[in-house]
Design a protein that fits this description.
Elements: H1 3-15, E1 27-31, E2 34-37, E3 42-45, H2 48-51, H3 60-70, H4 83-96, E4 100-104, H5 107-126, E5 132-136, H6 145-149, H7 154-157, E6 167-170, H8 175-181, E7 186-192, E8 194-195, E9 201-202, H9 205-218, E10 221-225, E11 249-252, E12 263-267, H10 269-272, H11 289-304, H12 307-328, E13 332-338, E14 341-346, H13 351-359, E15 362-363, E16 365-366, E17 371-374, H14 382-398
Helix pairs in contact: 3-11, 4-11, 12-14
Length: 399
């Protein structure tokens, strides 16, 4: 590490609240699927800012769209209309099949809005405010209080209790555990279509179908969190589209802005017409012209550059190569995931492997202590997969 990089890291540790144990590099710029630190070292990126930079770095069309919007208008507030927001709403409705859109600044805020919409929908039915939400164990929905309340990892919640209350936890892909939680007060069931932080667990088609039928029978709202697994990452614009199990409320973020902090929650017409009204919810920055210009260009480029087609071409190859590593090393016990959202499960902590990979110019991230997560830019090629596997294999061999 250079003296300059160490100085910056030292200054950061003096100035920033220490809520992250950061890797000891200072990133400076990116191009395509590569990142460079301030010393000029090149890294193959298989994290993409935690599933954010779907289009890769330094995409000229994307950059130009943002530069053009900067010269026009950055912010107005939601007391006024702006063209980028209207265009973005139309485009995201088209790709999602949902009916109403509320733009937020982050995924966590999208979850907050989804929870409020579900509770308001239930309140308008019976005038009561004792409704319950069923969430999933091992889930992760964010760090704000509402999102944390439906996050199925007690470790994240325990220091911040009490949470918002009236939340029960079932097990993903265990329909009986969901039935055990249902009462006449249940207003919503929330889950990630593919669990991310909890270990890269896809919901099964059978499970989703049964939950959807249950929700229809009892007028319970199905909320699908597509913040990490959506936006093409699993081979469809949204992962639920593979099964045709449409939610009542859906959250999206991360790759929606490809680097600009933006999210959204979307509602079907039933919920949109019977939940939040003027005065119920708001945001100062959400849906501003700059953020929505990013959404517009991202959705345009997904079409123009055939991003989802690339995912479906490269993902099976990535799975094959990860499976080969699993067969080669007995300390790798499983490979699971969907599309370009994959995890290798080890029988030991993976921090050492990730650190070795970083030294050799490969950026990886974990999903729990014993899982390496692979969420690269969606523009990766099979050659990029080969390069990643070569570095990772050498790190595993060092073990």
């Amino acid at each position: 590490m250079s003296e300059k990089m160490q100085q910056i890291i030292d200054e950061a540790e003096q100035a920033l609240l220490h809520t992250y144990n950061r890797y000891q590099i200072v990133l400076d710029r990116g191009d395509g699927v590569y990142l460079y630190d301030i010393d000029g070292k090149k890294y193959l990126d298989f994290v993409s800012g935690i599933a954010v930079f779907a289009l890769g770095y330094n995409n000229k069309a994307y950059n130009d769209a943002l530069k053009n919007q900067i010269d026009k208008l950055l912010h107005t507030s939601n007391y006024y209309y702006n063209v980028p927001a209207i265009e973005a709403a139309k485009k995201i409705k088209e790709v999602s099949g949902m009916d109403r859109v509320f733009f937020t600044n982050s995924g966590a805020e999208a979850i907050e809005g989804a929870i409020k919409a579900a509770r308001k929908y239930a309140f308008l039915k019976d005038g009561k405010n004792d409704h319950e939400i069923i969430a999933m164990n091992h889930s992760f929905h964010g760090r704000t209080f509402g999102a944390l309340s439906v996050t199925g990892n007690p470790h994240y919640r325990e220091a911040f209790e009490p949470m918002i209350g009236n939340v029960k936890f079932a097990n993903l892909n265990d329909f009986d555990s969901v039935l055990d939680c249902v009462t006449d007060k249940t207003c919503a069931i929330i889950m990630e279509t593919v669990q991310g932080e909890g270990g890269i667990y896809p919901a099964s088609e059978d499970f989703l179908t049964k939950v959807r039928k249950l929700c229809d029978e009892k007028d319970i709202l199905l909320i699908l969190d597509e913040i990490q697994c959506g936006m093409g990452r699993c081979g469809y614009m949204y992962a639920w589209q593979k099964y045709g199990v449409k939610p009542d409320i859906m959250t999206t973020a991360k790759a929606l802005g490809c680097g600009v902090p933006v999210g959204a929650f979307l509602l079907n017409e039933k919920v949109g017409a019977n939940s939040l009204v003027a005065g119920d919810h708001g945001t100062t920055y959400g849906g501003n012209p700059f953020a929505c210009a990013a959404i517009n260009k991202v959705l345009d480029l997904f079409k123009e550059d055939n991003i989802i087609e690339n995912v479906n071409e490269v993902a099976p190859y990535l799975e094959q190569k990860l499976d080969e590593l699993k067969e080669k090393y007995d300390f790798i016990i499983d490979r699971r995931g969907a599309g370009l959202m994959q995890g290798l499960v080890f029988n030991r902590p993976v921090a050492e492997v990730i650190n070795k990979a970083l030294e050799k110019g490969l950026i990886l991230i974990n999903a729990g202590a014993e899982i390496i997560r692979f969420v690269p830019p969606l523009i990766i090629t099979k050659e990029n997969v080969d390069d990643m596997i070569e570095i990772l294999d050498s790190c595993l061999g060092d073990l």
